[in-house]
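During the reporting period the student researcher (J.K.) took over the structure-prediction task from the postdoctoral fellow and processed the backlog of single-chain submissions. One of the processed entries is reproduced below for the supervisory committee.
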Amino acid sequence: MATSEPQCGTESEESTAEPTATVVANPEEYMKHPLQNKWALWYFKNDKSKSWTENLRLIAKFDTVEDFWALYNHIQQPSKLGFGCDYCLFKDGIKPMWEDDRNKLGGRWLMTLNKQQRHNDLDRYWMETLLCLIGESFGEASDDVCGAVVNVRPKGDKLAIWTGNCENKEAIMTIGQQYKERLSIPSKALIGYQSHDDTSSKSGSTTKNIFTV
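J.K. obtained the following C-alpha coordinates:
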Protein backbone atom coordinates (compact mmCIF):
# COMPACT_ATOMS: atom_id res chain seq x y z
CA MET A 1 0.00 0.00 0.00
CA ALA A 2 1.41 3.35 -0.93
CA THR A 3 2.00 5.78 1.88
CA SER A 4 2.03 9.53 1.58
CA GLU A 5 5.39 11.26 2.03
CA PRO A 6 5.61 14.02 4.64
CA GLN A 7 5.67 17.44 3.05
CA CYS A 8 8.88 18.85 4.55
CA GLY A 9 9.34 22.55 4.63
CA THR A 10 5.71 23.46 4.01
CA GLU A 11 3.13 25.01 6.29
CA SER A 12 -0.55 24.17 6.39
CA GLU A 13 -3.01 26.85 5.40
CA GLU A 14 -4.18 26.93 9.00
CA SER A 15 -0.72 27.74 10.39
CA THR A 16 -0.67 30.88 12.50
CA ALA A 17 3.08 30.92 13.25
CA GLU A 18 4.60 34.38 13.37
CA PRO A 19 7.58 35.05 11.08
CA THR A 20 10.89 34.61 12.88
CA ALA A 21 12.78 37.84 13.47
CA THR A 22 16.38 37.96 12.31
CA VAL A 23 18.74 38.96 15.12
CA VAL A 24 21.69 41.03 13.97
CA ALA A 25 24.66 40.59 16.30
CA ASN A 26 26.46 43.64 17.59
CA PRO A 27 29.54 43.90 15.35
CA GLU A 28 31.55 45.26 18.29
CA GLU A 29 31.33 41.83 19.91
CA TYR A 30 33.48 40.44 17.11
CA MET A 31 36.03 43.23 16.90
CA LYS A 32 39.50 42.18 18.00
CA HIS A 33 41.58 44.34 20.31
CA PRO A 34 44.73 45.54 18.53
CA LEU A 35 48.13 45.55 20.20
CA GLN A 36 50.49 48.48 19.88
CA ASN A 37 53.02 46.27 18.08
CA LYS A 38 52.95 43.20 15.90
CA TRP A 39 54.83 40.28 17.46
CA ALA A 40 56.44 37.09 16.20
CA LEU A 41 56.86 33.88 18.20
CA TRP A 42 59.87 31.73 17.35
CA TYR A 43 60.78 28.20 18.43
CA PHE A 44 64.30 26.79 18.60
CA LYS A 45 64.80 23.02 18.67
CA ASN A 46 68.28 21.78 19.47
CA ASP A 47 68.95 19.39 16.58
CA LYS A 48 72.71 18.90 16.42
CA SER A 49 72.50 17.70 12.82
CA LYS A 50 71.35 21.17 11.73
CA SER A 51 72.83 24.65 11.93
CA TRP A 52 71.63 27.18 14.49
CA THR A 53 69.61 29.10 11.91
CA GLU A 54 68.06 25.89 10.58
CA ASN A 55 66.91 25.02 14.09
CA LEU A 56 65.15 28.38 14.54
CA ARG A 57 61.58 28.34 13.24
CA LEU A 58 58.93 31.06 13.07
CA ILE A 59 55.72 29.75 14.61
CA ALA A 60 53.29 32.62 14.09
CA LYS A 61 52.75 36.38 14.11
CA PHE A 62 49.95 38.24 15.86
CA ASP A 63 48.84 41.81 16.52
CA THR A 64 45.65 41.43 18.57
CA VAL A 65 44.88 40.29 22.12
CA GLU A 66 42.61 37.52 20.86
CA ASP A 67 45.19 36.13 18.43
CA PHE A 68 47.81 36.12 21.19
CA TRP A 69 45.65 34.00 23.49
CA ALA A 70 44.65 31.67 20.63
CA LEU A 71 48.35 31.06 20.00
CA TYR A 72 49.37 30.86 23.67
CA ASN A 73 46.66 28.31 24.46
CA HIS A 74 47.67 26.18 21.47
CA ILE A 75 51.38 25.70 22.22
CA GLN A 76 53.20 23.75 24.91
CA GLN A 77 54.27 25.44 28.11
CA PRO A 78 58.04 25.97 28.50
CA SER A 79 58.19 23.38 31.30
CA LYS A 80 57.07 20.73 28.79
CA LEU A 81 59.80 21.50 26.23
CA GLY A 82 62.87 19.33 25.82
CA PHE A 83 66.28 20.45 27.03
CA GLY A 84 68.00 22.76 24.58
CA CYS A 85 64.74 24.23 23.28
CA ASP A 86 63.79 27.92 23.34
CA TYR A 87 60.79 30.16 22.80
CA CYS A 88 61.47 33.68 21.56
CA LEU A 89 58.89 36.47 21.31
CA PHE A 90 60.13 39.49 19.37
CA LYS A 91 58.67 42.52 17.72
CA ASP A 92 57.92 41.80 14.09
CA GLY A 93 60.96 42.57 11.97
CA ILE A 94 63.51 41.73 14.70
CA LYS A 95 65.08 38.29 14.59
CA PRO A 96 65.97 36.64 17.94
CA MET A 97 69.71 36.77 17.42
CA TRP A 98 72.55 39.02 18.55
CA GLU A 99 73.50 39.92 14.98
CA ASP A 100 70.18 41.57 14.13
CA ASP A 101 70.61 45.33 13.61
CA ARG A 102 68.04 46.07 16.33
CA ASN A 103 69.80 43.81 18.84
CA LYS A 104 73.54 44.12 18.24
CA LEU A 105 73.99 47.27 20.36
CA GLY A 106 71.71 46.03 23.11
CA GLY A 107 71.63 43.54 25.94
CA ARG A 108 69.32 41.55 28.18
CA TRP A 109 67.93 41.33 31.67
CA LEU A 110 68.71 37.72 32.55
CA MET A 111 67.19 35.53 35.23
CA THR A 112 68.38 31.98 35.88
CA LEU A 113 65.99 29.55 37.56
CA ASN A 114 66.93 26.50 39.58
CA LYS A 115 65.62 23.05 38.68
CA GLN A 116 62.78 23.20 41.20
CA GLN A 117 61.51 26.44 39.69
CA ARG A 118 60.85 24.69 36.38
CA HIS A 119 57.83 23.08 38.03
CA ASN A 120 56.87 25.95 40.34
CA ASP A 121 57.60 29.20 38.52
CA LEU A 122 58.80 28.83 34.91
CA ASP A 123 55.44 28.79 33.11
CA ARG A 124 54.01 31.63 35.20
CA TYR A 125 57.13 33.74 34.75
CA TRP A 126 57.05 33.21 30.99
CA MET A 127 53.37 34.13 30.73
CA GLU A 128 53.95 37.30 32.77
CA THR A 129 56.94 38.13 30.57
CA LEU A 130 54.80 37.83 27.45
CA LEU A 131 52.06 39.98 28.95
CA CYS A 132 54.62 42.63 29.92
CA LEU A 133 55.79 42.80 26.33
CA ILE A 134 52.53 42.79 24.41
CA GLY A 135 50.90 45.08 27.01
CA GLU A 136 53.74 47.64 26.75
CA SER A 137 53.99 47.47 30.55
CA PHE A 138 57.19 49.49 30.83
CA GLY A 139 55.73 52.80 29.63
CA GLU A 140 58.01 54.77 27.32
CA ALA A 141 60.81 52.29 28.05
CA SER A 142 58.78 49.68 26.16
CA ASP A 143 60.03 51.27 22.94
CA ASP A 144 63.50 49.95 23.83
CA VAL A 145 62.25 46.37 24.24
CA CYS A 146 63.12 44.04 21.37
CA GLY A 147 61.79 40.76 22.71
CA ALA A 148 62.10 37.99 25.27
CA VAL A 149 63.60 34.51 25.36
CA VAL A 150 63.10 31.43 27.52
CA ASN A 151 65.85 28.79 27.42
CA VAL A 152 65.09 25.30 28.77
CA ARG A 153 68.36 23.80 30.01
CA PRO A 154 69.39 20.82 32.20
CA LYS A 155 71.36 22.93 34.71
CA GLY A 156 68.68 25.61 35.04
CA ASP A 157 66.25 27.42 32.78
CA LYS A 158 66.73 31.06 31.79
CA LEU A 159 64.41 33.98 31.11
CA ALA A 160 65.53 37.19 29.47
CA ILE A 161 64.14 40.46 28.15
CA TRP A 162 66.22 41.90 25.32
CA THR A 163 66.59 45.64 24.77
CA GLY A 164 68.04 47.55 21.86
CA ASN A 165 70.62 49.85 23.46
CA CYS A 166 72.82 48.77 26.37
CA GLU A 167 73.78 52.42 27.04
CA ASN A 168 70.19 53.58 27.58
CA LYS A 169 70.43 53.24 31.35
CA GLU A 170 67.17 55.00 32.22
CA ALA A 171 65.07 52.71 30.04
CA ILE A 172 67.03 49.62 31.08
CA MET A 173 66.58 50.30 34.80
CA THR A 174 62.87 51.04 34.36
CA ILE A 175 62.40 47.74 32.56
CA GLY A 176 64.42 45.77 35.11
CA GLN A 177 62.70 47.22 38.17
CA GLN A 178 59.18 46.83 36.79
CA TYR A 179 59.91 43.34 35.44
CA LYS A 180 61.17 42.22 38.85
CA GLU A 181 58.05 43.63 40.53
CA ARG A 182 55.76 42.00 37.96
CA LEU A 183 57.25 38.58 38.68
CA SER A 184 57.20 39.20 42.45
CA ILE A 185 60.92 38.48 42.74
CA PRO A 186 62.13 39.07 46.33
CA SER A 187 64.06 42.33 46.71
CA LYS A 188 67.15 40.52 48.02
CA ALA A 189 67.31 38.36 44.87
CA LEU A 190 69.24 40.30 42.22
CA ILE A 191 68.84 40.02 38.47
CA GLY A 192 71.48 41.38 36.13
CA TYR A 193 71.67 43.15 32.79
CA GLN A 194 74.37 42.09 30.33
CA SER A 195 75.35 43.47 26.94
CA HIS A 196 75.12 41.11 23.97
CA ASP A 197 78.64 42.09 23.02
CA ASP A 198 79.99 40.88 26.38
CA THR A 199 77.89 37.71 26.19
CA SER A 200 79.05 36.80 22.70
CA SER A 201 82.72 37.44 23.46
CA LYS A 202 82.94 35.98 26.98
CA SER A 203 85.84 33.63 27.66
CA GLY A 204 84.39 31.97 30.76
CA SER A 205 81.02 30.59 31.79
CA THR A 206 79.69 33.86 33.16
CA THR A 207 79.16 37.36 31.79
CA LYS A 208 79.61 40.50 33.85
CA ASN A 209 76.52 42.50 34.76
CA ILE A 210 76.37 46.12 33.65
CA PHE A 211 73.36 46.82 35.86
CA THR A 212 71.52 44.95 38.62
CA VAL A 213 68.16 45.38 40.36
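The committee noted the following: The beta strands are 34-44, 56-64, 86-91, 107-112, 145-151, 158-163, 192-195, 211-212.
J.K. will present the remaining backlog at the next meeting.
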